Amino acid sequence: MSEEGQAGQGGGCLFCKIASGEIPGKKVYEDANVFAFLDINPRNPGHTLVIPKKHATTIMDMGEKDVGKLFESVRYVAEAVQKGTKAEGLSIVQSNGKAAGQVVTHVHVHIIPRYLSEGPVSLEGVLGVKKMPEETIDQIASTITQNLGAAQSPQKGKDEFDF
Ligand SMILES: [Zn+2]
Predict the structure, then answer these.
(1) Ligand 1 is an ion; residues with CB less than 5 A from it
(2) What is the pLDDT of residues 5-15, one digit of tens each?
(3) What angle do CA 16, 108, 95 make, to 5 degrees?
(4) Residue range 113-140, pLDDT digits in tens
(5) Which domains does the chain have, with CATH numbers?
(6) What is the CA(121)–ligand 1 centre distance, in A?
């Protein structure tokens, strides 16, 4: 999924241009690694996007330390969004790939203020719960664990996973 053509100085990437200031964004936070700004199509007032300054299409294209820094900043900004908007809840959404609904191909994390009055929309509400036989569930778990080797595990060298 990596799109090297968009890496580096921004290329044609909208979010790289916002992070660099080439295109103005309503900035709410910035540090060495991330840039946070208000979504131009807010689902609620205070709907904020947190992006890594270094271009990556999905979180799988990022190093684990960079993902860690991104989500540390998400937590930091989320607290300010919650306090600033007096939100009763926050939806934190991060989509990877077109099938997941990703539109801009630069990693971004949505922080969306939520209120009890609007009727919570949960992940279950969007996709519905799928019932599966035990053997299918075992098979799916196995195909995932067999692919863990390809990932850079923070647990490497520590205790084995115990499923
Ligand atoms: Zn970008």
Answers:
(1) 13, 15-16, 55, 106
(2) 444 444 699 99
(3) 135
(4) 999 898 767 766 677 778 999 999 999 9
(5) 4-121 (3.30.428.10)
(6) 29
